[in-house]
Every structure is written in C-alpha cells, then in structure tokens.
Amino acid sequence: CIWVHRLHTFRYRHQQTTAKRVEEVEFDGPCMKTEVPGPRSKILAQQLEAIQSVVQVNFFCDYEESKGNYLVDVDGNRMLDVYTQIASIPIGGYSILYDPELFLGTFVNRPALGMMPPEQFSEKLVNGLMAVAPKGFSRVQTMACGSCSNENAYKAIFIWYRVRGQQFLSLVFSFFFQVPGCPDLTLLSFMGGFHGRTLGCLATTHTKAIQKLDVPSFDWPIAPFPQLRYPLGQFERENAQEEARCLEEVEDLIVKWNQKGRHVAGVVIEPIQAEGGDNHASFDFYRKLRGITKKHGCAFLVDEVQTGGGSTGKFWAHEHWGLDDPADIVSFSKKMLTGGYYQKNSFQPDKPFRIFNTWLGDHTKNLLLTEVIKVIKTENLLDQAKRSGKVILEGLYNLQDKYPHLLSRARGIGTFCAIDVKDEDTRNNLILKARNKGVVLGGCGTQSIRFRPALVFTEHHAHLFLDIFNDAIAELK
Amino acid sequence: CIWVHRLHTFRYRHQQTTAKRVEEVEFDGPCMKTEVPGPRSKILAQQLEAIQSVVQVNFFCDYEESKGNYLVDVDGNRMLDVYTQIASIPIGGYSILYDPELFLGTFVNRPALGMMPPEQFSEKLVNGLMAVAPKGFSRVQTMACGSCSNENAYKAIFIWYRVRGQQFLSLVFSFFFQVPGCPDLTLLSFMGGFHGRTLGCLATTHTKAIQKLDVPSFDWPIAPFPQLRYPLGQFERENAQEEARCLEEVEDLIVKWNQKGRHVAGVVIEPIQAEGGDNHASFDFYRKLRGITKKHGCAFLVDEVQTGGGSTGKFWAHEHWGLDDPADIVSFSKKMLTGGYYQKNSFQPDKPFRIFNTWLGDHTKNLLLTEVIKVIKTENLLDQAKRSGKVILEGLYNLQDKYPHLLSRARGIGTFCAIDVKDEDTRNNLILKARNKGVVLGGCGTQSIRFRPALVFTEHHAHLFLDIFNDAIAELK
C-alpha cells in the first residue's frame, strides 16, 4: 500500500529532523480498544443527560492521558487528533511544559483585568499576544471567548464610526439616527460566514438555519461570498468573474444601505470561511475588498477566531494577502487560548467603560499562551505546519484522484485543509469510520471535512492520518 | 471610638468561634505603604497604556500574595477587599486549598465541553453547580461569562416561546412574523437593570448611557423598576403604591407589545439591581411579577450573575422570595467562577447546536467551583454571611445616623449591602479615601457604594471595615 510505504519512508526522515521533546510526550500511533463512543462514554452520557443535553456529545475524554497529537477517550481509545477541540488546541497536550504553580494565584484570585490587573499583565501581553501581533497593530484587548471578542469588536466599530462621524457629519447623523444614542448602524457580513452565536454575532452568522431559527436578529446587509470552482487552475477565469461579481455586490450594498440612512459602519469577514465549509477566496479578492472598505469609510474586521494561531503556516491567515494595512481590527480566540482582538489606535473608545466587562478575559490563559508562543517559536512550528500541510494537501489530491466519485475540492493553506464528500450522510459516515480507526475529524459546511491538527502535527502524523483516512474511505460503499 | 471598642469585643468572640483554617491564611489587618495607586502601579499602568486602555485600571495586584479577605497590590499595600473583583471572588484567596495537579490536564487540553467532555464532567457538575441548584431546577448549561450566559438564556427563551407557540398558535405566528425564521420577539427588562454588554444583553441593560451610546440595539419593552423610599418602615404605603404602579406598567407593556405582534417572550430581572445602584424591591413585588409572567405566557429569567453565590445569606437571592416556582431560568457567573444558567426542562432546545459554542464554559472553573462549594458547606459560610451582613448593615445604619448630611438609604441582605452618598463626586472621593486607608470598595448607580466581600468575611472583618470606613467619612469636608 502506498500509504504504508510513505509512512515508513517518512518515519525515517522524521526521526532525524524533529526535536526530541515533541517525541517524548507522544504515543507511537492510535490504539483502539472499543467502538467510539465506547461503553464508558455511553454510561457517562447517560449520567450527563440528567443535567444537560448530550445530543452534541461525541465521546468523553481522559485529558490527563491525552498527550501531543493524541486524544485518549475514557474507554482507553487513543486517537490521532485532527480536530483539536474544534480547532482550539494550539500545540497539543504539552502538559509537561507548564509549571502549575505559575498559574495558581491568578487561577484562584481571578482578576477583574480591566480594573485590578496583576503585576505581570503587561509583560505577559507583550511576550504573548503582542509577540505575535499582525503587522500594523500595537494594541490588544482580551475577552473570554470568540463570541465576546466579536461582539466587542462590533461595538468598537460602531463607536469609532459615530465618534468619527460626529466630527465630520454631525448634521447628516442627527437627521438619520432617530433613536437617540442607539443609531441604526449596520455591519456587512457574508453568506456562509460564521462569527459566533450571541445575538450581535448571530446577525452576521450565515451558515446553518438551525443556528438562527427563532432568534430575533438585526437586519443588516449580507453579501455573497465567492463560490469558487475546483480545481482552481482549471477555472481561473470563472473564479475571477465570480469574485468580481461578489465585490460589486458588496459595493452596491454599502452604497444602498448608506443611502437609506442605515450606514454600514464595518465589514466582517473570515480569511477562510471555516464553519461555513472551508470556503476560500483569492488573496486578490481580499485586497480589493479592503480597498472598497477604505473607499466607503467602513471599518474592516478580519475574524481570525478559527484561522489564527499558525495552522496556515503564517501566524495569521490574513498575512498571506500581502497587504501593508490589511485590517482595522483582527479578532481571535480558540488556539489563542484567550479571546480578544487587536485594534488600530483609532478604534480605542474615547471614554472608559464603553468596552468593558468584569473579567475581560482570563489571565491564566495569557500565562499559558506566553508559554505556548515560546514553544511555537523555539520549535519553528509555523514551518512545521507548512511542511505537514504540504503532505496533507498532496495526500488529499491523491485521494480525490483515487476516489473521484466520493471526494472533491481538496483545498487548504498549511494544515488548514478540507475536502468535500459526495453528500452529507457519506461525510458523517466517513467521520465516524475514521474515528473508529483512531482519527478524530470534524465536519464543516454541508458536506466538507475540515482538518484541524495542532501545530505539533508533523509529516509523520500527516502520513499516519492519510493512511487511516484512506482505509476509512475504502470501506465506504 | 465606638468602632475600636466593637472591634476588640468582636475579636474576642471571633477567636473562639471561627475555624482555624480561615485564620491561617489571613493577615491581621490592612497595611498601607503608599498612596494607591503607588509608584509601581503607576509604572505598570504606563507600560500597559502602550497596549490597551488603562483608564479603568485602579491599581495592579500581586495575586500570589493576596490571601483570604486581603488584596495585596504591587506596591505591597495590603487592603481589606470589600469589592472582590467586582463581586466575583467567592471565598477569597484560598490558594492553599487547591491542588494544582488536579487542574493541569484540563487546563492545557481545554475541552470543547459540548462535544468531548472529560470523564468527570457530570460528577463535577453534580457536586458543583447542581449541589447548589435553586429549588425546582435539575438542568444546567455552562457558559464562559455572564454576558454569554444571558445571551444564551435569551436564545433558549425565544426558542421555547416559538416551539411552544408553533404548536398552539401557528396561524397567529405565521401572520405576525414576517421575517422567516427570525421572529420579531421581544424581552421585557427594567430601567436600572444590568444584564451584560454584548449586543443582545445590552438591549436589556439600562444603567448608564455611556454603556449603550452609539451601539445599535433591539427595540424591546422597558418597564419601570420600583424606586423605594428609605427608611422602608417609614414609607410602607408609598412603596407599596410604587410597586403596584410598576407591576401595572409591566402588564400593560406585555399586553400592548403582544397586541402589536411583537410578542414578549420573557421577562428578565435581577433580585437586586446591582450595577444599577443596589435597588431593592419587596419579595411581594417579585412574587406578583412572577404571577404576571405566568398569566401572559412569558418566561421568567432571574439574573443572579451578581446576587448568586451566597452573599445574601441564601445561595440564591431569589430564594428569599418564598416561591415554589420562582423562575424558568436562573443565570449566573462571577462568584460561581463559571458562567451558565439553570433551566426548566421545557427550555432545553428541541434540536442540537441551537445552544452551542466551542468551549461552553471552562471545565477548570467547574473543578474549582466544586472545591469552593465544599468549603462553603463545611464552613457554613452562608451563616457567616448572615452574621457578617448583620454587623455591616447595623454599622451602616449607625453611620447614616451619625452623618445624615452625607449618607442615606443604607440597605442590604446578608453582606450584599449598599449605602448612598450625597453626590457622585463625594462617593468617588470616599472610595479613594477608604482605599488609601486599606479598604477596597466599588461604586454602583450614580451615587451608591456597594459592599461585596467574599464569603470568608467574618464579623471581625466587618468591624474592621466599618472602623476604617468611619475614619474615611470623617475626613470628608
């Protein structure tokens, strides 16, 4: 089998090139003892059912036993983790790197970071979040989770738009905004975009109907996101036309909504629509979109909650676009361990308590992130993501050539890869088959599988994954 | 001085009655070395200013040195903490009670709790959140923070209202809700209420204009909250009339909004309006309000983010009302360490992923809470809160008798107490004076001071606080 062969070759190279420490905490492969979920997971699910819904629960895990790239469930099944808690574990279960004593005081005495921060707060921000800040950003605001990050980024945009607007357009504004203090401003988002599930975020989230059903929403403009045809090389002209159509629609929407007095204060977009199905657009599309926001005075918010943290081979996916000034605000969470956003200076509200809450994040996550970033840098894990990503994507290309009736649209940057399966049921079935063979995967969109390994996922793990994934596909009828 | 005298008497009783362990981690009183913020805090604020706004920062803390009821700042000032990180530290800096090893695996491998919970998840919920669940609740959903808790509780209410409504009122609904899927439902909230700062929560938050200014909002009904006159005993009839007026307005609003097709799906209220100024209403008011929600088919959401966790002398403030069925949903955060809400079974959405996000809270907080609840129970800290609260409130009554030109409206349940100062500037000045004498306090409303000690705040600390507070007041011109 070609996969086994590759794996062996790889293992040889691997042992010579990778740092020892990564290997020390690693198992040598998946090890399955039961179907997943196993009997212990099922018992635990029954217990939990008495307290909360378990319809979303896949299985229960033993996080003390989970190390490196391997997730161990409560039935002792050891699985290669290509989903990482919905793309939120940066460098795998590196428990041994952390000294628990470091965190304890802050953990128990959780500070209200906006009012009474701990001594090392600045230092940890400088060595943590600011050490990996996208070019052009010198300010950061932490928040507890991705939704809170976007909610507060939206507020920062509205405040910025009004404060700026009041200086230059006070007459226009006093005419248009009939609700005193709460103006009828809007944010433009994209079909297929996902920015969170709280009420403000949800107004910009357009992935699955069930996420929005029955919940009151803001009536804000929604633009089409390019539907690229694959393989990209074969549809260059069509895809360029599709992107031009979408950009034209964006500009039309901004003009139209501004004209009716419901000004578009900002545009929010992901560098890759993740939850929506790993939908990519060209770097050129994003550069032009940035130009449109500048032309019309809209803030440009890049939501890197899922794409940020290094899996694309750069720390921030939008850094691939090659722009000096790609964004006004960049939001993050998941692999960054803390939520929050970077902001241009002009987005700092003019008065205190406009952006505020009790905790404003969780300093223990800042401490952890600082350690994680040290590891990412010393072990060159961004380069690792590029190398592993190359193996994954080439493997996916081979698989879709081998199973053209099942697989299509293999795509990705770094390890941030995805592939489409012929329909939703087959996709879900394939994820379950892979899991029972020891690989944890997640779906996205209607029929895609997203691959979201940690940054310690080496070429070795990539081959191991492809080998098992191939076996799972081969079993599909 | 009367306060010194009381303190001495108390110390004597205290030493005989309180468990040793609380004392072991405690300092014997405030110890001030500099003005607050001191030079080290100022340097750190300058450093932080380069990265984020510091206009809300009071001072920087040394959380490793902070123990029990004392907060130690980076200049070595040791202050009695009567604010507890905006009312969010349950039992003070009890670091020694926790074994860091317990938390490490979960801390580093942060689980996506909705999909891959850890083995002990149910058990920790049963011994943590469910061990202190308000009567009538057998289900709980964790969330990361207070705003997320309310945002998701609102969603649960809207889903419940529609799912129930569609069964009985499908014709009415299809007529009224013109936006398919996103109905024009509303939530009724109260003037002076505070429920968070994300866009959904913010539509129900009505404390300070600066919190809402420039941010688009939902147009939902807002009812008046009773403005009680103090002392309560002197204004019984007027206060009963005021409460009746507010309840009548609530019912009118529900009827009116339902009639115009913007149905009121739920009513959200705090047992004590905290951020809004520690505004109380009688238990009878809440009982009648509960009746109105039942009559009109609205969900009743009690927001215990600030009041929950034991400081009123019961674990939940709404338990004082003496109702068998006081609420449909109870939200919490702050002193509960994790955000979340208890819900009646009927509020569990009918389909998966309707209430969901990546982390759904943070399991390390569940672990910590389980330990905290053990301590609260074994050391009878709710009784402690009643005893200390009595000392605080009596002390506040004495102070307002002594300084009637400065202080008024002393009020509270348990240690959840407040007093009004003659105006906002004097209030702010008094808080600073108390801080420089070694007591950390926080304001609320326009001219109130709220007292929010931890549950380990004994009569001894109450006397100590009153003594210093008296000195600070005496210095006011």
From TrEMBL, chains A, B:
Enzyme class: transferase
Catalytic reaction list: 4-aminobutanoate + 2-oxoglutarate = succinate semialdehyde + L-glutamate; (S)-3-amino-2-methylpropanoate + 2-oxoglutarate = 2-methyl-3-oxopropanoate + L-glutamate
PROSITE patterns named among the record's database cross-references: AA_TRANSFER_CLASS_3
Assembly mode: Homodimer; disulfide-linked.
Keywords, ordered alphabetically: Aminotransferase, Neurotransmitter degradation, Pyridoxal phosphate, Transferase
Signal peptide: none
Role: Catalyzes the conversion of gamma-aminobutyrate and L-beta-aminoisobutyrate to succinate semialdehyde and methylmalonate semialdehyde, respectively. Can also convert delta-aminovalerate and beta-alanine.
Family (UniProt): Belongs to the class-III pyridoxal-phosphate-dependent aminotransferase family.
Gene: ABAT
EC identifiers of the protein: 2.6.1.19, 2.6.1.22
Organism: Salmo trutta
Superkingdom, taxonomy of origin: Eukaryota
GO cellular component: mitochondrion
Keyword Transferase recorded: yes
A GO molecular-function descriptor: (S)-3-amino-2-methylpropionate transaminase activity
Lineage: Eukaryota, Metazoa, Chordata, Craniata, Vertebrata
InterPro entries, A to Z: 4NH2But_aminotransferase_euk (IPR004631), Aminotrans_3 (IPR005814), Aminotrans_3_PPA_site (IPR049704), PyrdxlP-dep_Trfase (IPR015424), PyrdxlP-dep_Trfase_major (IPR015421), PyrdxlP-dep_Trfase_small (IPR015422)
Name of the protein: 4-aminobutyrate aminotransferase, mitochondrial
Cofactors: pyridoxal 5'-phosphate
Any one Pfam family match given in the protein's UniProt record, by short name: Aminotran_3
GO terms for biological process, alphabetical: gamma-aminobutyric acid catabolic process
Alphabetized PANTHER family for the sequence: 4-AMINOBUTYRATE AMINOTRANSFERASE, MITOCHONDRIAL, AMINOTRANSFERASE
Protein's UniProt keywords contain Nucleotide-binding: no
